[in-house]
Request: fold
Amino acid sequence: MAQHGPEILKSKMTTAEREVRSRLAQLISSGALIRATLTVRERVCGRATCKCVTGEKHASLYLVSRQDGQLRQLFVPKDLEAKVRQWVGQYQRVQELLEKISEFHWKRIQDREE
Reply:
């Protein structure tokens, strides 16, 4: 199978593939990404007069991921919540775009195109 430089590959890309690659490049260059999920944990603090005793528990946001097979979790303070949600969302969008690019190439192989 012949190898081609990036210029030749670009000429064979569909408009849809070029758009997906462009969006991917913008996402990667525009800011932070973090591979994790966000989990809300609810708990009771133990004070006898607190609202959590009657059922309205305290909610805390945690960032959760696996690294080297180990689960790691990190508390997200309220002042960082919006930023962390954005970073996690951007990573998820990058993953979705990579899947689309993979599908373009899958189809190329399926159709026996170079």
Notes: The chain has a mean pLDDT of 87. The radius of gyration is 22 Å. The CA atoms of residues 3 and 114 lie 9 Å apart.
